[in-house]
Amino acid sequence: MQLSRRKLLQMAAGAAAVPAASSRLAWAQNALTVPQHVRVATGLLAMWQSTAWLGAEAGVFKKRGIDMTFPAIAAGGPRAAAGLIRGEWEFAHTGTLPVAEEVLKGRDIVILATPTSVFSNSFVMTRKGITQLNRLAGKKIGVLSETGQTSVAARITVEKAGATATYIPLVKFDRIYAALAAGEIDAGALPIDMRFTGQLRYGWNAFPIHEFGTPSIFASTRKLIAANRELVMSVMQGFVETIHIFKTRPDVVVPLLQRYLKIEDRKAAEDLYAFHVPVFQRVPRPSFPGMQTLRDLLAKKYPAASSLKETDIADYSFVDELERSGFIDRLYAADGK
């Protein structure tokens, strides 16, 4: 049976009347007919930037029809942000600082979530004999890069202690760890994941790095949002569900983290996991308590930084929509949490 032109137009008009927000969530809540390939990069190999990887390994994204791969893990914050802008991947875990700097350069990158609250997640680890940061004057310190958030924060931490040191970019935390163990450097910026091992095995000293109140983030581009908002919503739905699994399913998460972080000792992995559970946010809405400090830091290089707004670097709409729809409450309702 053929439909009249009038009937076809009426049907099209009716479909167009479906509320946009409801349409996006309905699309995101159903598995896609054709799997969507999504690439994700991380700046660091660290528990607080493991969310997407954990979700992929636990099958959270797959059930939404998303084939998620990780072409660059521990690429460094600036590289993770730059690759996102160049289209080498669609999403990235990185720091707030690289995102803000790229926005000030006029480039397309936007924060969708801050999976954790601000906490001391990185430390300047020093050789056993160096018991104060001011004793690093003239010494060599291993960092990931020259401009990444953790590296910049490490330098600020040491300088505030009154020491001028030489910083050696080593790209990955495991290289910093190995160089410090071999005595090739005197100190290194390392994540909490490696802090306890270094203290136990080598007697290293730990000094918290204060990352000026700007947390690690999950980002994409405004171009992708405009082109395929439904896909971005589906990824964000899986991202939020993975945080729920992190907070409620140690039986699933701890073995995966052992593999991801290469932690052989199950007890060490359980302790590290327990430390992180409360800092992962049930509602990971972008939040920047250190925004003014970030502005002050970037204003030295970019005058426009003094007027940089949170909305210039973040899109709150995805987390807001998931919270408003009741999606997040439903995740936790079954656990009574």
Describe this structure in words.
The protein is 47% helix and 15% strand. The longest helix is centred in the last third of the chain and has 20 residues, at 229-248. Strands 2-1-3-10-4 form a 5-stranded mixed beta sheet, with helices on both faces. Helix 4 crosses helix 5 and helix 11 (250-261) crosses helix 12. With 337 residues, it is of the alpha/beta class. Residues 1-19 and 27-32 have low confidence and may be disordered. The termini are far apart. It has 2 domains: 19-118 and 214-333, D-Maltodextrin-Binding Protein, domain 2, CATH 3.40.190.10; 122-208, 3-Layer(aba) Sandwich (D-Maltodextrin-Binding Protein, domain 2), CATH 3.40.190. Strand 6 (140-143), helix 6 (149-160) and strand 7 (166-169) form a beta-alpha-beta unit. It has 16 helices and 10 strands.
Short description:
This protein has helices at 5-16, 20-29, 51-57, 77-86, 96-104, 149-160, 173-181, 192-202, 222-227, 229-248, 250-261, 266-276, 291-299, 310-313, 317-324, 327-333; strands spanning 36-42, 66-72, 91-95, 110-113, 122-126, 140-143, 166-169, 187-191, 205-208, 216-220. With 337 residues, the chain is of the alpha/beta class. The protein folds into two domains: 19-118 and 214-333, Periplasmic binding protein-like II (D-Maltodextrin-Binding Protein, domain 2); 122-208, Periplasmic binding protein-like II (D-Maltodextrin-Binding Protein, domain 2, 3-Layer(aba) Sandwich), CATH 3.40.190.10.
